[in-house]
Amino acid sequence: MRAxxxxxxxxxxxxxxxxxxxxxxxxxxxxxxxxxxxxxxVDPQIWELTFHDPVRLLSLVGRQRLEQLVRDPAFMGSLxxxxxxxxxxxxxxxxxxxxxxSPLRGVAYFSPEFGIAEALPQYSGGLGVLAGDHLKAASxxxxxxxxxxxxxxxxxxxxRLDAEGWQEERYPILDPHAxxxxxxxxxxxxxxxxxxxxxxxxxxxxxxxxxxxxxDADVESNDDELRAVTDRLYGGGSEHRFRQEILLGxxxxxxxxxxxVETQVFHTNEGHAGFLGLERIRxxxxxxxxxxxxxxESARAGTVFTTHTxxxxxxxxxxxxxxxxxxxxxxxECGITIDTLMSLGHFPGESRDAPFNMAVxxxxxxxxxxxVARLHGRTSREMFQPLWPLVPAEExxxxxxxxxxxxxxxxxxxxxxxxxxxxxPAWDExxxxxxxxxxxxxxxxxxxxxxxxxxxxxxxxxxxxRKSLQDSGVSVSDTAWTDDILDPRFLIVGFSRxxxxxxxxxxxxxxxxxxRALLLDEQCPLQLVFSGKAHPADDLGKAMIAEIVRFSRDxxxxxxxxxxEDYDISVARMMYQGSDVWLNxxxxxxxxxxxxxEKAALNGALNCSILDGWWDEMFDGLNGWAxxxxxxxxxxxxxxxxxxxxxFELLERQIVPLYYDRRGGRFPRDWVIRIxxxxxxxxxxxxxxxxxxxxxxxxxxxxxxxxxxxxxxxHARARALTAWKQRVIAAWPDVKxxxxxxxxxxxxxxxxxREIAAEAQLGSLTTEDVxxxxxxGPVVAGDELAETQVVRLEWDGSSGDGDTVGPGTGVVRxxxxxxxxQAGRHGYTVRVVPAHRDLVTPAEMNCVAWA
Length: 851
Prior knowledge:
The protein is 39% helix and 18% strand. It is of the alpha/beta class. A hairpin with a 2-residue loop joins strand 7 and strand 8. The chain is globular.
């Protein structure tokens, strides 16, 4: 039976221990080693029992122990220091506060999941962990950012493997009252779900200086069906996910308003929160009296969209029937048809009944968009180029900001001490010059830190496997063999991530005899540690896990290879800190970025990876190993075979021999040289602080300024820009350009300037409405331009017949020059594009006239 009313009973701490409550309810403890040590001090046994959850710890510690702590001057002194340090961290100016003249006042970062700590299990994998690291880095930099997500009562699943190694899921019920969350009173919001009103309460988590708001549909005013909207992450069918995304996007905007959070910039982390744009458009129409086109222009001026998907199959698409049923009244309120709404989620020329594409809407309603690595940016530009068919793929308006990681969350205390000593006490915000200091670290000192990480991982794996076996009914005697799982003296290769087929976790198993030879070598053995989860509906991913588990259970090799079940942040952290080599085997270019290798690298692991995601741009030949990618082979089975051969050859001929080369003493000096090269080159690049600073300078600040400009004076500039766009688009069919035929020259000397003249026919437009551009560069087969440079030509003040014209209308002449600074075949062309002071990029209008 269901209780008529429910409430939470919280342990009451002695007044002197009140600061412990403040520390527990700010998730900064998740990346502060000293603070975690303080909670361990409270009660080491309960700290481990609660899986390092300070709130649960304080609710379970007995009164007698609390009174002992009050009488312990050493503990009370440490508590006071920790509490004072938290207050300074939250209140003192940081990097952003010392940044003069920034136009940014507030960013709202929307994501369907946030991986902050294992004590707040609102994440499934990389997307959520990235979002958590984004918030942590923004906090450390002092950036005015607020997170918005959903509070899932069942979170993501806990994993258990059956006797055959098949993944089973279970969903423990989470009580937000027993977590590091506080209810935001007065911030309850409502959204319409096809005629049903869903109410949501709002929880707040404090992540250092950052506030994270989580919407929760499990409230009494909702019926059971509505309460289930926030039951689990990525659960249910298409309509269930659709409802979640409405609550996240529309409800999230309303929650920010209810909480009084000022927001200039709305950042959507993938398309899941894209409906926030529709809510902002509706408000601009209803409250500010803008037309549909004006509201779209004003809303997109303050929006950033980040895509994480390198393949179309990974994008959310919803059928027209669902859109019409849920957004019909919304369309009526905005004065548009369902066809107009659907066009926001369609590529040009798509059928009116085609599914609504959330990524397409995200791109259409964002002033700036980006992929999450350079290679992923290129992949995204090619994938979404049909949105701007007249624009070359390389100029598709999607940039890239490579993902980074929050170092202090993932780095071991030993490596933290090493970085503080040789790089900087603020090593997580250090630059290239400071990271060069890692070369001064003593080799034995660095190796000892690595040994400690390896020792901890081996102990963790043994205990975890032993407990798993005993929980499944295996006797204590029959689990004695787990004492010999792994050997901290030997090379450990780690692989942990979501089990999707393109990640190819079983690539090594494709040649079992070679793998067995590596595992069972008596002098130089390889050891493998796997972990990860498959999506509950992904049977192919589950089959990969089962294949690995069955292989690893062979009594002949089980001491050299294992799978850690129930992967989460705590498991990942142990693996990053203890692995010597981090393995990554995706099919290029299907890994958008991937960040697990970045975390492992900061702990001194060396990456061995396909050149995909972040590794494609950061591998330098010394900081790890690159597995060959045979993209030209279309037969996937044959391609996997070729790439597996490359991986085995790296292991057999380079990695294993280098690790066991002890001619220089008790540890492999050449291996340590590689570790230093990895830390020196990757340290300043893989940090989330670098990533968030890139977002700030390239996205947030320009967008904040643009948003303010277009919103000023009753959205006057937004209205004017809309009218100008409509006029230019209507006139564009009459715009043409030709290169002066008298300009033909076959040969020029290297370093010589080449002058170009062109005539543009502008129709009803003026020279103030357009820019005429020269594109030049080397030509390859078929006279295709490669690596083009763009030079803006200048109107010479005359018309095509030489007469001077006033505003520059009709047929006008443009001139410019470029320098031929590269020998060989060179080419050029000319185009006309729209030009306006408030355009973020001319490409957004898809108006291009080519010569």
